[in-house]
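Subject: mismatched residue count in predicted assembly?

I count 373 residues in my input, but I want to confirm that the predicted structure covers every chain. Input:
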Amino acid sequence: MATLHVLSHSPFADSRLSSCLRLLGGDDAILLCGDATYALTASTAARQALEAKADSLKLFILDEDAKARNLTLPEWVQSVDYPGFVALSVQYDKVNTWL
Amino acid sequence: MLSRVFEFFIIGPIHSCHPLTEPSMKFAIALYSPAHAASSRRALLFAQAVLCGGHDIVRLFFYQDGVHSTSANVVTPQDELDVPALWRDFVSDNRLDGVVCIAAGLRRGVLNQEEAERYSRPAANLPAPWDLSGLGQLHDAVQAADRLICFGGP
Amino acid sequence: MPKSLLIISRQSPWSGPSAREALDIALAGGAFDLPLGMLFLDDGVLQLLPSQSAKALQQKDLTANLQALSMFGVEELFACRTSLAERGMTSTELSVEPLQIVSDQDIAALIDRYDQVITI
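Triage response: the counts match. Full output below for your records.
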């Protein structure tokens, strides 16, 4: 069983990303959207925390949010559009949005 | 008038936009944020993509500040996306079940005609296609759907 | 067989309606006899502090409703051990029971076990 966790809050002002990373199951994935995409900003603790899990964690980002913020994406993150977001929600057993 | 047409943003009834490559699923979509939050538009585009992908939406449930996304009283600046109007059109054009939680709505001043009269409030701001109902409808949708997706926050 | 739902409550009791509205989802589901669980995580564990006074803020008593959860058929209540420790609550006598204190790994398994999840 695997869960897709969806985050949209900035990791700098908020503990959702760090809590989420603590609670991940072995096959879970994270989709970053909205301000959570800032977690990929270079030279940040958030990016380091994600990179440390790059081998075991599937990480996705909503393409429009990455583009809006002019983020450079590392190769261990996969960019998805809305049809891709829907496909992920079908592929994973459940979606847990960190409201 | 929209200043941009978003890539696959479709206004009007949606027919399948992509050939279905996986079994059709039933989605329950819940929104917790007002129209001016990025997550409200995000939820709308996701919902459109669900229908485009050949899946079904069992219900759209608006809870917490999500009730504000359905208010007919929101006036959007002309050079911005009119998200409440787009939600309303999406629900009516596709004949979807759009339910606004009554407790969350009352608390936030989102009332249909009946509730405005019941509580002697000066205005009703929840016309069709919206239904005002209880949390039982959220639970009912969760039971009926294959997937529950919530949107909220930024 | 009805689908089970885990409600994860992450907000403190007094900052806004989120704690109350998470609880309302649980109580509504309990009224329909649905299999539900509730997990208190991050600031959500602050709802479990004893001897709080809603009256002091002219608000409704959340604690009484939390204590009524099991009466409404919501018997699976959990609190995150790490969240409690971060907030100095490891030895605190919590205001709600029965309550299982769970580790991070337990929580991953919990989320897996339930059919659906709502995090508020």
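Helices of chain B lie at 38-52, 83-93, 102-107, 113-118, 136-144. Marking this ticket as 'not a bug'.
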